[in-house]
Amino acid sequence: MRVLQSAVVKKAAGSLATLVGVAIFVFFMLRAxxxxxxxxxxxxxxxxxxxxxxKSLEEYYGLDQSLASQFFSWVGNLFQGNLGFSVRAQQSVLxxxxxxxxxxxxxxxFAIILALAIGVPVGMLAASRVGKPRxxxxxxxxLIGLSVPAFLLATTLLTFLAVNLGFNPNGLGYKTFFEDPxxxxxQMLLPSLVLGFGxxxxxxxxxxxxxxxxxxxDFVRTAKAKGVSTxxxxxxxxxxxxxxxxxxxxxxxxxxLLGGAVVVEQIFSLPGVGRQVLTGIQxxxxxxxxxxVLVIAAAFVIVNLLTDLLYRAIxxxxxxx
Amino acid sequence: xTQLNRQSASPxxxxxxxxxxxxxxxxxxxxxxxxxxxxxxxxxxxxxxAVGGNxxxxxxxxxxTIFPWKATQFQAFRMLENVYDTLTAFDxxxxxxxxxxxxWEISADGTSITFDLRDGVTFADGSSFGSEDVxxxxxxxxxxxxxxxxxxxxxxxxxxxxxxxxxxxxxLATADVGLLANLTSVNLAIVSSDDTEESLSTAxxxxxxxxxxxxxxxxxxxxxxxxxxxxxxxxxxxxEFRVLPDEAAIAAAMSxxxxxxxxFSDPITARTVSGGVTVNTTPQLSYHALMLNARNGxxxxxxxxxxxxxAIDRQSVLDTALLxxxxxxxxxxxxxxxxxxxxxxxxxxxxAKSAEYLAASGNAGGLEIDAIVAQDLYAGAxxxxxxxxxxLAEANITLNLEVLExxxxxxxxxxxxxxxxxxxxGGRPDPDGMYGRYFPSTGNLNxxxxxxxxxxxxxxxxxxxxGDPAARKAxxxxxxxxxxxxxxxxxxxxxxTYTATSxxxxxxTPMTTGSWQYLRTTGLQ
Lengths: 321, 525
Description:
The complex is a heterodimer.
Chain A lengths: L1 H31 L4 H6 L8 H10 L6 H13 L5 E2 L4 E2 H36 L4 H15 L2 H16 L15 H35 L2 H8 L4 H29 L3 H6 L5 H10 L3 H29 L1 H5 L1
Antiparallel strand pairs in A: 1-2
Chain B lengths: L11 H15 L8 E3 L16 E6 L14 H7 L7 E3 L5 E3 L2 E6 L5 E6 L13 H12 L14 E8 L2 E6 L6 H4 L14 H4 L9 E7 L3 E6 L12 E6 L3 H9 L5 E4 L2 H4 L6 E7 L3 E6 L9 H10 L2 H9 L4 E2 L22 H10 L6 E8 L6 H13 L3 E8 L1 H9 L5 E6 L5 H5 L10 H4 L4 H12 L3 H17 L3 E6 L1 E7 L2 E2 L16 E2 L1
Parallel strand pairs in B: 2-11, 2-12, 16-17, 16-18
Antiparallel strand pairs in B: 1-5, 3-4, 5-6, 6-8, 7-8, 9-10, 10-11, 12-20, 13-20, 14-18, 14-19, 15-19, 21-22
Helix pairs in contact in B: 8-10, 9-11, 15-16
């Protein structure tokens, strides 16, 4: 138990350090990008500003403070639960993120479920007959998933269904599950499919490789010799032991999705965190971008932490270590 | 780059006539006798459409502000012009017509304009509108501290008087022929003297046909009918600006009937819209140019600039970079003052003449110059730059392209830190509004334009006060000629936008400026 506590403390300390690093990195990188909120808002019209007008706008956008002052003010506010304020939306970043995060979370969960539903069975089938048609089909499917860009698949699906079937729930304007569950699920269908199909590709490959690896181990041969049924062998002995790389891959992909599948959110008009960050970067809304990125990083770290804990549940060898 | 002025698909001839009529109305500032102008309002010229319904307009990004004096973004501008009113307005033919001012009188010397304000107008919050609101609004816009974007429009206004609640007098330092037209901008919207920037950043309080009902960041802005609007009530119950961040998504939503109107910049996407939708091609007042900074490097030589100008085939660049979707243009793009695109030292590409100019500049062996290009400000910039570079290479001029992220490009552009720049600049109906900031030596963008001269200063000064339309046209022809003869920049072409409207829409009139003000007369069948 003490070992576990020590491991969790170490992991938590590492996660905290990661978040501090992310905070510093994103804060200074944002300001290293040429331009500011004034030029992002006015474009080349900013050339016509007088000195007084520019100073007034710098004050309006909070650019009149020193970098150090801006940084410590932001960090200080974070500790009080204040993520900043979006001048553009005239709303707190906390409110904006609280509205955007559930959209992205729902999309990520649906996409991962679809990816696992496709990836694990196909990977297992491919590994069960190496070099045979089912393997070739499985590998081809994974290659297609990796090769077809999400934006192409998304745009094609969206246009084809809208033009030919008049089906475009995403054009209705986003509805939350609680506002309209039917429309919400319809709106999540196509983006989840697009993302799930793309993510299923690495899961197919990982599953196939892991299953093949485990299948060649002594305990599987022993189980076979003892007359264990194929079904039991596949699921209880092989799949369970092959789960660690699959869980690792799934965790990474889930974390990536929580960062916002920007392109898919953009094409399907889903107001998630990916779009929020993209808009923030385009408008040079520093508070919005840096705080949202920090929230995303925190989500990623938590998912990683949960993945590590999941290892212990899945594999007794990890518990033993 | 903010582009707010677009030209509709209306025939150019009609536009020219209409604009000439506009000039008659706006060009009376320096007339010998006082004149009074009363014309039908923008609303009165339209037949009301069917009453009721909720209409959706697809936009790619949500309005970045709801405060009219600081709005520069296209979407914000188009939304706010349906919420706020101005003293004067444009009708569909670009005639200046009464807005909140019912009529106006211009003094004999053009230095004073007296506006008679409309009676019975109230703000959305129920408070009454009067001359104090006009004075408050214009003085606040003039105040540098407020950083209002249209401050320079009121630069010539020396004082504002309010003899009574229905009368406002603007006193000017000198006559300003374009002022009545310039007052139509929503950046000069009249707000209540009880309101502040802070209060109007979270809620609107205008005198226009709509009021803000709700605003959800990244999703939509919903306007509702203003029941106390002074003009004909708008037929629509609500008008939603729905954010669909990708043009393909808007096209799909229009095909599925979820959206009734949108403007596309990409012709291929616009043509994918199907099912009861009409797409109109609309030429723009904005123009693509190769800006030459005559105060920097080899561009200080007029011969070098002329060599560049003669070496470029504008139509070929247009065909290569934008698939021919546009028109070759000279400096002035507004219909009433349009420059002849062939009135330049080399009307056609002339490599022999280019070589002569190059030799005269002392660069017979060839020349290397730098160009900044924005990668992500607008579509086609890099394609245009590459097509221009390929043509210049045939004239022994090497154009080194610096392809920059938009922030870097804007910083360099603003500072005039470039030898040449591929640019898409906005156009305006009035040439003084279009170039009065660039080429007079006192213009606030003169350091960016890189060129000024005594003769140019005089031409712009004359153009500002000249009331006779023909004489004014001659002045801006002379401006155009000086710009082309000195190859100040290389004007390339104007592009198009594509307005898609569902066949269920009635009463919408596209404006030559790209304005959506006629959403106030739009209804659904």
